[in-house]
Amino acid sequence: MSDTLEATGTEDRDEGPPLLPFGAGNPQRRRRRIWPFVLGGVFLLVVGLAATVADAYAQSYRIYRDARTIIPDLDQARASLSRGFVPSGDPFRGASDAAARARRAVDGARLTFRVTGALPFLGRPVRAVRLGVAAAEEEARAATIMRDMVRAALGPAAQPGGSASSGRPIPIFHDGTIDLKLVESFAPSLQSLIDHLRAGDRFIRAIPRVPFFHQLDRLKAEGLGQSAQAIKLANDALAAVRVLPSFLGADGSKTYYLGLENNADQRATGGDVLAWAFIRVNRGRLELLDGGGSSRRGFEPLYGFKGASLPPDYAWYVDHIDEPKAFPRLSNSNYTPDFPVVARAWAAMLDTGKRIHVDGVVALDPIAVSALLGRHVVRIPAYSKPITAANVVTVVENDQYRLTQQQQSAFPGELILAAWPAVADPDPFLPTVHRLGQALREKHLLLWSADEKEQQLLTQLRWDGGLRREPGDYLYQVDNKLRANKVDFYTSTSIAYDVTVLRSGAIRATCTVTLTNRTPPGQPEPIVWRSVGALNRALISVYVPENATLVSAVPATGLPDHQEAGSQVFIRVADASPGHPGSVRFTYTVPNVVQSTSQGRLYQLTVQHQPMVNPAQLTVRVTLPVGTTVTSAPGWIVRGNLATFRTVLTTDFVRRIVF
Prior knowledge:
By secondary structure, this protein is an alpha+beta fold. It folds into three domains: about 45-245, no CATH class; about 255-460; about 475-659, Sandwich (Immunoglobulin-like), CATH 2.60.40. It contains 15 helices and 23 strands. The chain has helices at about 1-10, 25-65, 70-80, 90-105, 110-115, 125-155, 180-205, 215-245, 310-320, 340-355, 365-375, 390-395, 405-425, 430-440, 450-460; strands at about 175, 175-180, 255-260, 270-280, 285-295, 360-365, 380, 385, 445-450, 475-480, 490-500, 505-515, 535-545, 550-555, 560-565, 565-575, 580-590, 595, 600-610, 615-625, 635-640, 640-650, 655-659. The strands form five sheets. Strands 10, 13, 15, 16, 18, 19 and 23 form a seven-stranded mixed beta sheet that branches. Strands 14-17-12-11-20-22-21 form a seven-stranded mixed beta sheet, with no helix packed on it. A five-stranded mixed beta sheet has the order 5-4-3-6-9, sandwiched between helices. Helix 3 runs parallel beside helix 6 (about 125-155), helix 5 crosses helix 6 (about 125-155) and helix 8 (about 215-245) packs antiparallel against helix 15. The longest helix is centred in the first third of the chain and has 41 residues, at about 25-65. The termini are far apart.
C-alpha cells in the first residue's frame, strides 16, 4: 500500500493553498497593486486631454487674433457706404481675404481643434471661434454686395473725390430724372444682403459664453447691436426700393398735393399751410403744375369745404375747437399729429371741393426746404435778398412778415415757383439725399399715398408721420396754436415727464408742458396781432396709452378726452406771453405697463415728437419700486431706484429699463 501511495504521489498531506491567478487572493493587496496603474492611466489621460485642449485653445486664439483684423475693415466699409462712397484702400478685399484665411485656418486645424470642439464646456472657445468666423464671412459678403450697389447707383461718383458732390450726372439721377429701372434692379441684391446679415446675426447669437474671457461678451454685444442696426437699415432700403418706383410714376403719371407748412404758426403736423402746389410725377421726372399762397383768392372757401368725407379723428377737432372756430380747410385745420389722417382729409377736400383727384400728399416745412436747396440760390420779387439753404427758415418763418402787406401776399407763391428747380433737380444730389433722409426722420418732410400697398411701405419706413403705439408706456406731446400770430418762432417748449412704477406693474405719471415765449417787443403784424399781441395761446395735447385714466389736470377743464389710433388724448390750453410762461399738467394712471421678460421686468417708453422750429426739451424721471436693482438701462442715468434722461426731441425713440 505504501509503495502504491509513493508511486502515485497521492499521499495524504497538506500541500498549502492552490495557485491563483495574478491579483487574486487578498482584496486589499489586490487594490494596492491596481491603483498605481489606474492613477497612471488617469494621469496620462489628463495630461493628454490637457495637451489636446491647450493646443486647440492656442489654435483658437491664433484664428481669433487673425480674424479680428476684419473688424476695422468692415467698420471703414460701413461708415463710407453709409455716406454713399466706396472707401479707398479696398477694405472689402481686406475683409474678404481675412475671412477666407480664417476659414482655411478653421478647416485645416489639427485634430486637437476638432476633438476639443466636441467636448462639453471645454469646447466653448473652439465653437466661439468657428461661429465668429462664419459671422465674419457673412458680414464681408454683405458689405461687398452693398459696395456693388453703391457703384451701380453712383458710378465714378462713388469713389472718394468723385463727382457725387459736384453736381455732375450720376447713373441713378441724370437730366432731372430718377432712373427707376435701376432703383427696381436693387431689390434682389438687397434681399441677398439681408439674408447674409441675418445669417451672420444667427452665428453671433449662437456664440457661447467663455469663462474668464469677458472681452468676448463685449464683442458679442457690440456685434449684435451692429447687426440689428444693419438689418434694419437694409430692410428699410428694400422697402424704399419697392415703394419709390411706384410713388415716382414708374407705371404712369401721378399727381400729388404739396403743402408748405409754417412752424411759426404751429400745428400738429408742423404748421399751418403757407403755400401749396400740385405736382405731376411721371417715370421719375417731376413737373410743377400749379402753385401759390394759401391766401390766394379762390383757393379755398373761408368756412371750409362742405360735404367732404373727413376721417373721424380729423373731424373730431373740427367739431370741438370753437375759439376760434375750426373749419375743414386745407390751410390750418391739421390739428391731429397723425399725418395719414390729415392727408386723407386734404385729399377728400380737394376731391369734393375742387374736383381734383390726387394720388398722394407731400408736406414739408422750411427746414425741409433748406435740405432741398443745397447750392441753389432763390431770388423772388417780393424779397430783395437772396434766399439760400442757410437763411430760408428765418426768411419764411419771420423775415417775410416784415415786408409790406402786398409783398407778404405775393411771397409764398413766388417762393414755391422759384424754389421748384431745387426740388426737381437737387444740387449736389447725394448730400441732398442725405439731408432729405434726416428731414424724413425728423418729420420735416411727410409722405402719404392713396395706394394702400405704397402706404404700407411708407408706414414701414416711418416716412408718413403716423401715430405708433408700442407696448408699454407712450408719450406724444402736441402743440396747436389757437391765435393768428407767428410767435412760435420765438417760443420754446419743455416737457417734464415723471413716472412712478408701482409693484403691480402699473404706473402713475405726471406730464408737465411749459411754453416760454421770448417774442421781442416792437414786432410788426402779423408776428403779433392787434387783438392778442404776442400771446401764444396753445392747445396742448398729450397722447398716452389708451387705457390711461386721468386723475387731475391743470387747468382743471378743457376739451373732452378722446381716443385716436389706440391712444388716449388729454387736452388743455396754455397761455404764454413774453415774461410769463404758460404751462399745463396732466396726472394719470396706466395699468399693466411693466412687462415680464426673460431678462427681468421691463419698463419701455416710446416717445414721438412734433416737428418744430425750436425742438422741445424733454426730461424723463422714472422712480422704480424701493429696493429695485436696475440691470440694464441704455441711455439713462441711474441712481438707486431713480432713472433719468434728458434729450432734445428731434426724432421718435424708444427707451428701456430692465430691473
